Amino acid sequence: MADVTAGTKSTRFKRRLGEGLTVELIFTPSDNTPNPIANDGHLWSGNETTSIDIDRPSVRQSPSDTEENEGLLQIDLTNFTGRLSFRKIETNEGEISGVDYSTTPPEIIECPPTFEEINSTLTEQQQAQQPINFIQVDDSLFERLLSSSVMTDDHAVMGDEFSGVSSPIHENSSIRLQPSFMPATTEVERDLTVSTLSSNDLKAVGKAGAPLSAGKFPFLRNRVKPVKNPTSEDTKQNSVTNTISNALRYRRNKRMSMFTIMKRESVRSLPSSVLMSPTKEEKDGQTELHILVSSADLTLKSLEETIERFPESVSTPDGRGRLPLHALGSNSDLVNYPEGQAIAKQCAILLMELYPTAIITKDENGRMPFTYLIEKWVEWTHQQDSAKQLSRNHQDSGEAISGFFRKLLGSWSRSSRHTDPTSTTETLQSLKSLSDSSNRFPPVIIFEEVEWCFDILSLAMDHLGGMPFDQKQNLRKNLSHKKQREERMVLATNVASIPQLLKTAMLLDSNETRQNILDSSVIRRALLCPEVIGPWLTSMLRHKKGKSSMLAIELLVMFSQLSVEDHVGKYRKVLPFDEELFKADKLKVFEAVENLRDIVPSLLILPNDQLDQAIATPVIWFCMNRHTTSPFSVGMSSTDFQLQITTIIAVRQGLFLLNTDGVFPIVFPQLTIVSVVFFGCFFQVIRILCEAMALKQISTQVALRYCRDPWRIFHFVGVFAAMWASVQYKIRIDNGFYEDESNFDGDTPPLLMAIIIGLLWFSVLGFLKAVNESLATFILALTRIFFDIRFFCIVLLVFILMFGDMFHLLYLEDPALKAECNSNDPSDPASDFCSERLVYSYLRVYAMMIEDFNLVDFQQSPAQTILWLVVTFVGFVVMMNTLIAVITRSYERSQNSSIILFRRARCEFVASNAAIEGFLRPEFFDRHANRNCDLSSILLASARWILLLTFFVTISISSLYLIQLLVEVIEAKNWIATIAAVVFCLIMTFNIWSSFAFIFNALLRICSGEWAEKTRNGILSTNQYIVEKMAAQIFGIDARNTDGGEMIVTQSYGGHEKELYSRIDKLEKMLDRLVTQEATREAVNSIQPHVN
């Protein structure tokens, strides 16, 4: 409806009509005012109401842009005064009245008066009274408005069951819409704008509720003002009904209209069905203050008045042990829009000031204030994800998900909330029953009231850290430093105890929101609580899809970057005792990460760049150091070293260095030597296979990475070949093969034996690369150098073949050199170049490149001399210097990345040791072996017992062999060999002690009694002392050191090179600028006297 005054600026009212739609427009002109409405441009005149029917059945539902003017009724009101309104809307199949209609309204109907056109119809006085304001809201406000009166000229229908109730318009009052039903699903975000006008503005503009496009939902975000009681006359005058249907469809107008769809990240709120309403018994224990702070109409003034009347109610709990601060933190109706959050924040500050310990007071369910909504958010998030997973496996996914959401969300009305008295007490159990080991990591959305709870908890945490609520006050002095620190710890522990809270926060889809939550004071302090850690962290590292692994690495970085300010607060002075407490709390968090099952082996799933970022964090370095210095790891590493050296000595002494008479040395019986080699190699082969099987249970990708390691391949080939050779020699000894001296010639290819012994020594390098950082730098640098010179070797090989063929042809064709081919001197190069085997010619060229030549040998012919000059220049001067440059550059790059390369090797070392340790423990089969005796379970159990038996047999035989070796070297009076044998015997003693300590510890766990406990503690303490000494000598790590070190900035090889060149470019530019400035200054100084 619109009041039109003559003389106003031309205004056009447009309405796009749908198929089969009839709109009755009513214009009531003033006296002697012509009627402007015409269907064909003709103007009617008269004082009576004129009705015009426009029937456009041919107009399509979705007109294209080229048909912009079709179906539009344009009215020019420049020189007319009167009232214009829409009387009714109907279709060809039935009349629409409220929610009672028989068919869907037109698909597309627009209401396009522009902002300028609306403003042009207002008088200056009306514009001054209330300007047009566009506001935005979400669905959650409707539920709050159910009990509120409506004041609007129009009302709307949402979906098929959404309608409003018309109310009168009062002067200078706001317009509101009220729904009577909200859809049960929240999958589709809805956020639109609606204009809030005064009654005068509305009359000037016309009916704001014309037929709207499908799916347009006008709703309000700002808090609405109380409405005056309407009069019956006003109610009769404003009885126009507008309809909106097809709620899930959207259309954006090109021009600003009265109702415009705007899609953005809408304001979200928790589903009402996951929130618990108090039972009747619980309501009986509530005070008036509890009821007030639970209401959506709470104001700071009403709170102050209630507290003034009932001051003791601030500290009075209700039937569930909840203080008023608990009730305020659970008031989702109040805090899901900004104005309500501001009011609730002021009320929370007042309650905390009056009763400071309320923030750390627990109710009967163990909840502290403002944690209820956070807990429900976590629970709802994971239940929703479980429902989506269930729907994918259902035959009819749409039916399954619909049924779940119907059960989960239920109705949005207040009457549908749970009232079961047992539901509240069982909430924590239901939340803790969520699977912590779930491999699903979906994107998470956060609701505004939950985000507000984090803000309030951070405010309370800062307040306990010395920040005053009132900025005009000084820092808090009413509480001692110690008491505040304890209260911060209690609050942080309660927040950290919410299951999967940190996981849910890490999975927030908005990077900005996630960073804000993780940077909040309460989360930073909760990160220093071990309760915040869960098995989900390992699952995140293993997750291949999405960005879960990167989020897990970010979390590890956060743990590593915690500071003492996070512990005591930013507003308190750090005391020496705070530093100690901070280190103790940080140690507990690091230990909680270390105790996660398979945390280090899970890192091997990551790509190399992510792996480097993870192992650069102090928390992971702490985990690796603690595992490296554990008794099992130290004992196993020492045993590996002993067995490798013993096997090499036995192979050399017994299998290859037979005396000339074909008889073994008297001190070393044949059976003992062969047994040492066989069992030593067999144990290492079985161990490699068992480690691969254990890593396979963690991840197939980790097992493949373990098996593809070049060091592991060389080690496996070497020990397997040595085991095969020992078996062959044992068979020949039993058959009397070596009793005949003629059988020694040509028995086994010497090159094969040399390769076997070389691979065994190469395995020692593979072991040492993970032991010490200095050793790792040289060993890994060598591997990097060999990798970098692979292309140089190809070029070098081509040059050797080229010059070898040239010299070979020159000696065969040149008459002056052909005579030299009859020389029988092996040192003469002619004997090699004239040989029928070209390989000798190639070897001679290679010798020339490394300066193994005599100038006299290349002076018999000018061609020979020229070719010799070319070979020496290209081979020695160019190629060798190029090789040196490549090696130098590769070594420098290896030095720059030595820490990361060493930590990567240490990570693989710890992962293999952790896998074999878990494999040897009975708990491994409780986790992985099937209860049914299938083939895989039998293989795992058999491999475990074979490994244990082989280990003890190998240790026994190796120890016997070392004792015999010690006796032999003492009798030979070889003091260097004696010292080496004594060192090996000490290592052997430690290995035997560690092995039996491991067994006794497992046996004493089964036994009960005081004696068993004392014996076990004595063995553990003694073993720990020995391990600390051995760890310091082998790995260079202090086992008592709990510091994870500093963060390491990781870069790839290319990154270091790029950074170096970037720095060089900057230096060059800086020097050029300085030189230019200096030259300019000199030129100015030289010109200055002449100018003067």
UniProtKB/TrEMBL annotation:
One of its GO terms (cellular component) is plasma membrane. GO terms for biological process: calcium ion import across plasma membrane. The keyword Signal does not apply. Coiled coil: none annotated. This is Ion transport protein. The chain crosses the membrane at residues 667-690, 711-731, 751-768, 789-810, 866-887, 945-963, 975-1004. Residues 30-69 are annotated as: Disordered. The lineage of its organism: Eukaryota, Sar, Stramenopiles, Ochrophyta, Bacillariophyta. It comes from the Eukaryota. Keywords: Membrane, Repeat, Transmembrane, Transmembrane helix. One of its GO terms (molecular function) is monoatomic ion channel activity.
